[in-house]
Amino acid sequence: MNLMCPARILLLPGDVVEVSERVAHVYAATFDAAAGARLAERLGVRLTLLPDLTGDPEHELQAISDQHRGETVVVLGLDLGLRLPALVEHTGDGWTRVPTSNERTLATYEQAAEQFRELIPAEPNHQLIGLLELKPGARVLELGSGTGRDAVELERRGFAVRRTDATEAFLEMIRADGYQADRLNALNDDFGGPYDAVFADAVFLHFDRALLPGVLRKAAHAAPVLAFSTMEGQGEEWSNRLMDLPRHFVQWTEEALRDVLTATGWSVERLERGAGNFSSWMQVLAVRA
Fold this sequence. Notes:
This protein is of the alpha/beta class. It has two domains: 8-98, Rossmann fold, CATH 3.40.50; 103-288, Vaccinia Virus protein VP39 (Rossmann fold). It is 29% helix and 27% strand. The protein has eight helices and 15 strands. The strands form three sheets. Strands 9-8-7-10-11-15-14 form a seven-stranded mixed β-sheet, sandwiched between helices. Helix 1 (33-43) links the parallel strand 2 and strand 3 (47-49). Helix 3 runs parallel beside helix 6 (168-176). The protein is globular. The model has no long low-confidence stretch (mean pLDDT 90). It comes from Kribbella sandramycini. This is SAM-dependent methyltransferase. Keywords: Methyltransferase, Transferase. InterPro entries: SAM-dependent_MTases_sf.
């Protein structure tokens, strides 16, 4: 069947507590009933349990899609062989995975890394780096190293930094400057370790609310200290600011950010605010609870 206005079906693991998109309904396999009930209550929508969800998954998805044309629904407990979370649509020829907002943002950085380096301040984030009170030689995992400006300052202060990024263009940029850098996608890859701290400057703001808890849990397994910056506010947006291509930004209130940190094994030790050109920022130092 070719759906002129198909449903968008968000396939999620059972431990998700936040969803960025507007959702019309939650469906869950019976073994994910408790998780489905929590998510449905949080979103203020109905929950439907599907005992046979894993029997003929494509048939079940088609039936759900037929009921929710033009809407987005969540399905928990279904494995189509995709890395979760995943957003899928029916195109008429089968189920197609839709690129996530983070993947589209990474594509922007791949195409415009040099433009980004030219437009952002050359100075590192001294406010965030100053929150780290580590001994010389401390091992720091940097997520989203980008142009590499923060890592240079971290090393100047005596820390041993593992530079990583999910964007090949930034990795090549860092290597051209004479440093080692590893490809690491914070959403999908294991962090390794142990480290003394995880550092992420202006990285988490590109992650959908449903995805950030998983990243924070991995960070808690990797290190006892987490330092990061993110945009303060409410909602989310696509923006072409500074660059000619779109990037996705998710803003957090302090209360919501503290809640998700607590739920993922962190305690906020320091939170400072700083002004940016387009938004206010929170600089956060958290310790493993």
